[in-house]
Amino acid sequence: MQVSKVLLSTTSVYPESTASAFELASSIGYDGVELMVGVDPLTFDEEAIAKLSEYHNVPVLSVHAPCLLVSSNTWGSDHWEKLERSARAAHRLGADTVVVHPPFRWQREYGEGFVDGIRRLNRESGVMFAVENMFPWRTPAGGFEAYIPHWDPTHYPYEHLTLDVSHASTSRLQSRELVRAWGDRLAHVHLTDGKGSFKDEHLLPGEGDQQALLLVEELATNGFGGHIVLEVSTRRAKTRHERQEMLAETLRSIREMQSKGVRN
Fold it and tell me: Under a CB-based contact definition with an 8 Å cutoff, are residues 190 and 220 in contact?
């Protein structure tokens, strides 16, 4: 039975660097990394990343396009060129997936053509573009719909979807229900957790309300073959050793649940 590869997002070691993510992924035993483009200037340079990947013998299996507010100027201001550049980076690094967020509401022209544009990229780019679920922004003054066409990709004709477990929690949805609703459109998973806060918490799997480790078991039972990416916050770690132990223990739990799911 096919079992998902387990990747470490380069954001999971923050405030350590992207280089540290490769080092930790190698020493702990992750199957690869997901490169988050932005924040760390090193991520702008595919050749430097390729050398890191080769040195640590850790493949880059997915690329997260620069969609965050903090990476709004990464690789220019043309949104489609940023996605094309992400596809070229994926080809150079040997990744098969590009993760992309829906546009912000103020990116109106980009948003109006987003569904068709993603369809085109999936047909022409040679890599898979998987649209990630986001969440409604909640403030003391009320809710704010920050994304177009919508933060929830369920009812839009995207061919491939990325499930972010923390985003599901912030949206007050259940990840396992989204998996069932999406069916074979589920292509990629950001494994994390949340407690339903208005903040995007990115807790360790099992620390929140999403039954995240049961989700891993269910995916393995159902033969899900996409990548599972640990995308968590480890900022509370006081030392490198503590961070490494957190990431290692989480990988052990994921592997255990995958094995249990395969046996079912």
Answer: no
